[in-house]
Design brief:
Strand content of chain B: under 5%
Shape of chain A: globular
Radius of gyration of chain A: 22 Å
CATH class of chain B: Mainly Alpha
Number of strands of chain A: 27
Strand content of chain A: 25-35%
Number of strands of chain B: 0
Mean pLDDT of chain A: 93
Strand order of the largest sheet of chain A: 8-7-16-11-12
CATH class of the largest domain in chain A: Alpha Beta
Number of helices of chain A: 5
Radius of gyration of chain B: 16 Å
Oligomer: heterodimer
Largest interface: A-B, 53 and 41 residues
Order of helices and strands of chain B: HHHHH
Largest sheet of chain A: 5 strands, mixed
Helix content of chain B: 40-55%
Distance between the termini of chain B: 41 Å
Structural class of chain B: mainly alpha
Structural class of chain A: mainly beta
Low-confidence stretches of chain A: 1-22
Low-confidence stretches of chain B: 1-21
Chain lengths: ~400, ~100
């Protein structure tokens, strides 16, 4: 029997006349149209241990994207949930010996907790929230910008269970000079000179009810590649703050430094219609990314799909934002000339994906289907890209062309 | 068939003590042949898999590849041999750069 390795070694990528063909013997990955040609040529469908085959963008550190088909469900299955790491050395932690240290110069009473300590010592709560990488859709940036070239799938929605960070911080005794709370995970760089991945949030955000230390995801322990045994969740804010494998939480009286706070994860000041500011980290030119912009994804029909003329087609998808909640979703089936309200589906809370659907009956010919979400702040999606050097906050209205015959 | 192959591969990958299960599959990444390829493999693969290079192509010009190498050596602390830098830059610009 052939081993997988032999299959892989026997396969080579080939480029013919500018077309990048998937390597023979490998599952062609359903990459998002518009990602760089090099990304499309290199990406394959591959399963990490405990995961379904996902779109492999890089092996080490592992960056795997969720194929769009899984967003047909409002909760993203754990084994299809995207994987994103910055550092290559990812220890497999043992739930029994895992501890998180809570302290820092702006805490009066440092403490250390096991999983049992957290579960017994604090009220256990649940929240449904979208975890979206800051760089989701970076691969669609024009011009392309450097980084992990994500398409639509660097996100997922889950029911998280754990304890409120503010309850844990209350026991640690937050001093009045506290300005930020920093998180560190157990992962490390391959080189000891690689900056450790440490992220902080403003003290006010750490003390909000929704910010949690969680140990369950959709009723199961966290998958290893999503932060087992415990991670931070910061609902509404992008995934960079959702520290996986969290082992240290420090209350700070000075701004957290380091590469991953600055220059990484920055957006130009004033370019996006965001509400949440991270004032202790702001500079004249840029500011840390904070809450997600309002966005939507069409999950059906798919681009290029052929349908029957004169028969109803159901346009379906999801919408989400930075935690204000989805007010409405409008659908256009004529390339944006006219818009109709979609029907909103199950409401799992303001931090969750909100499903929506709209039926229309196409006449013969091509139809450009689009969707546009608006949140309860009145913010909506953009028609043209708001370019920024890191490719963040891409909420350009998606276009799906179908043909009815 | 593919499914069976995947299952077999995963059984191997799940061996205890393997910190980065994905590393076993990196052998399938094939960078383009050309002068400087060995310098790239030697210096870059220590910290990350080489698929980062084709993934970020072909849209970076020579200046941006140069800035990338400097970012790796500087803020990201990559132990890249200084004498290999010109060969790495030439290779990336020629094989994975925008023209």
């Amino acid at each position: 029997m052939l081993t997988r390795r032999q299959v892989l070694l026997g396969a080579t990528g080939s480029a013919v006349g500018g077309l990048v063909l998937p390597r023979l013997g490998l599952a062609a990955a359903p990459v998002t149209p518009g990602v760089p040609t090099g990304t499309a040529g290199e990406a394959i469908l591959e399963a990490l241990p405990g995961k379904k085959p996902l779109i492999k963008l890089s092996y080490r550190p592992p960056n795997y994207e969720t194929p769009v088909q899984y967003f047909k469900d409002v909760l993203t299955p754990n084994d299809a949930f995207f994987v994103r790491y910055h550092l290559s050395t990812i220890p497999e932690l043992d739930a029994k010996s895992w501890r998180v240290k809570v302290g820092g110069e702006a805490a009066t009473t440092p403490a250390e907790y096991s999983l049992d300590d957290l579960k017994r010592g604090f009220e256990q709560v649940e929240i449904v929230a979208v975890n979206q990488c800051s760089g989701n859709r970076r691969g669609l940036s024009q011009p392309h910008v450097q980084g992990v070239e994500w398409g639509y799938g660097a996100m997922g929605n889950a029911r998280w269970k754990g304890v409120r960070l503010k309850d844990v911080l209350a026991k640690a005794g937050v001093k009045k000079e506290a300005i930020e709370v920093a998180f560190n995970g157990a992962d490390e760089g391959a080189s000891d000179k690689t900056p450790d991945f440490i992220k902080s949030v403003p003290i006010w955000r750490a003390l909000e009810d929704s910010t949690m230390i969680v140990y369950e995801m959709n009723g199961q322990p966290l998958p290893h590649f999503n932060g087992f045994p415990a991670r931070v969740v910061v609902p509404g804010w992008t995934g960079t703050y959702w520290m996986k494998h969290v082992v240290a939480i420090n209350v700070l009286s000075k701004p957290q430094g380091g590469f991953w706070m600055n220059p990484a994860y920055r957006i130009p000041t004033g370019k996006f219609p965001l509400v949440d500011r991270f004032i202790t980290q702001e500079t004249d030119v840029n500011t840390p990314i904070t809450e997600m912009v309002v966005n939507s994804l069409i999950t059906a029909p798919v681009n290029g799909q052929k349908v029957k003329a004169g028969q109803a087609v159901e346009v379906k998808g999801i919408a989400w934002d930075g935690g204000y909640g989805i007010q409405s979703v409008e659908v256009s089936t004529d390339g944006g000339a006219s818009w109709r309200p979609a029907t909103l589906g199950q409401d799992l809370g303001r931090y969750s994906f909100r499903p929506w659907s709209h039926r229309f009956t196409p006449g013969a010919g091509k139809h450009m289907v689009m969707a546009k979400a608006t949140n309860r702040q009145g913010a909506t999606q953009t028609t043209t890209l708001v370019f920024n050097p890191a490719g963040y906050h891409n909420n350009v209205i998606q276009k799906v062309e179908i043909t009815a015959a | 068939m593919r499914h069976l192959l995947l299952v077999a591969a995963l059984a191997t990958l799940a061996a205890p003590g393997l910190v980065s299960p994905a590393a076993a599959d990196e052998a399938q990444i094939k960078l383009k042949d050309g002068p400087g390829k060995e310098a790239v493999e030697t210096n870059c693969a220590g910290c990350h898999s080489l698929d980062y290079i084709p993934m970020n192509s072909p849209f970076l010009d020579r200046g941006k590849w140069d800035a990338t190498i400097k970012k790796m050596i500087g803020p990201l602390g990559a132990p890249i041999d200084a004498k290999d830098v010109p060969a790495i830059l030439d290779y990336l610009a020629k094989n994975y750069g925008s023209s």
